[in-house]
User: What shape does this take?
Amino acid sequence: MRFLIGLVRGFFVFWYDFIVGDCWELAAGVAVVLVASVLLIRRQAIPELFLPFIVAGAIMLLLVLSGLLELRRKTAAGKP
Assistant: This one.
């Protein structure tokens, strides 16, 4: 039983580290974008044709903001 618990725990630790990694803000932002896209589809607020472009743009914006945030953290800590 202890072996099984270790396997299950290891499985979830691996996926947490794989998905979240060092930047939890990026993982949370992607989750928010995906949830918002599902809500937009269900409410038929925008045509489904535009949704991939909106999601891709939002995720690219998240990547840029995440990079700027990391750069700001490093410069504030005194690391160039």
In short: The chain has a mean pLDDT of 88. The chain has one domain: 22-80.
